[in-house]
TrEMBL record:
It is found in: Virion. Coiled coil: none annotated. Transmembrane segments: none annotated. Residues 149-191 are annotated as: Disordered. It comes from the Bacteria. Residues 165-187 have a biased composition (Polar residues). PANTHER family: PROPHAGE SIDE TAIL FIBER PROTEIN HOMOLOG STFQ-RELATED (PTHR35191). InterPro entries: Phage_lambda_Stf-r2 (IPR005068), Phage_Tail_Fiber_Structural (IPR051934). This is Phage tail protein. Keywords: Host-virus interaction. Residues 153-164 have a biased composition (Basic and acidic residues). One of its GO terms (biological process) is symbiont entry into host cell.
Length: 228
């Protein structure tokens, strides 16, 4: 600089990619929300269970607010007051030179909302509710957003009372019946009813065989009084 008289500020040749990288991370998080919704869990991942008096969270994988998190081992939790909820708390964190990743923890509380701590955004989701008697209600959405919507639609349909009955010409719900004297075309026979009918048919004599299918003919003749 002294020899050339040229002063080059650092901002003209040093590039800070922090904002760009943060934007890429946020885009990926939002794209995950498009696929998995507010939260999504797979199998028994983060399922709250109970063994004796000990509550625990089951190992597995899930998404909260687009952040993928995995619990490597079952985690015991302390529940001192009830009713209460069990929350999964996740955040995306790292330093300028470190590998970034999802940090997660389990919190037992009545209510919890997304929050910022030390400049880091935390996202929370209730995975279970525990009532005053210790009964657990699973609150985890299962699978992708499409799978969740399909499950919700099926659940609502199952709970409704507007189920059309199936007929020989229309699709619908079919009620099972073990009756063997019914002429209904809106009920389906159970294996029990089919077995009764088959046993009855197997025990009958075929009229076109003229008695040739009688196992013990002498005894038959005696029983009908023709032996004398």
């Amino acid at each position: 600089q002294a020899e050339t008289g040229i002063n080059t500020p650092a901002e003209t040749w040093q590039i800070d990619f922090t904002a760009r990288m943060a934007g890429m991370d946020e885009r990926q998080r939002l794209e995950n929300i498009d696929i998995f919704g507010a939260a999504a869990f797979f199998g028994d991942g983060y399922l709250v269970g109970k063994s004796g008096n000990q509550f625990y969270v089951t190992k597995g994988t899930g998404y909260v607010a687009g952040l993928r998190t995995t619990l490597a081992e079952n985690l015991n939790i302390t529940v001192t007051t009830r009713p209460v909820k069990v929350w999964l708390d996740v955040c995306w964190t790292g330093t300028l030179t470190s590998v970034w990743g999802v940090q997660s923890r389990i919190t037992v509380a009545d209510n919890l909302a997304d929050y910022v701590q030390n400049g880091v955004q935390h996202y929370v989701f209730a995975v279970a509710g525990i009532d005053e008697n210790g009964n657990i209600t699973d609150l985890r959405p299962k699978g992708t957003l499409n799978e969740q919507q399909a499950s919700d639609a099926l659940r609502k349909h199952e709970q409704s009372r507007n189920h059309p009955d199936a007929t020989t010409s229309a699709k619908g719900f079919t009620q099972l019946s073990s009756a063997t004297d019914s002429t209904s075309e809106e009920q389906a026979a159970t294996p029990k009813a089919v077995k009764i009918a088959m046993d009855n048919a197997a025990a009958r004599l075929a009229k076109d065989r003229n008695g040739s299918d009688i196992p013990d003919k002498p005894l038959f003749v005696q029983n009908i009084g023709l032996g004398n």
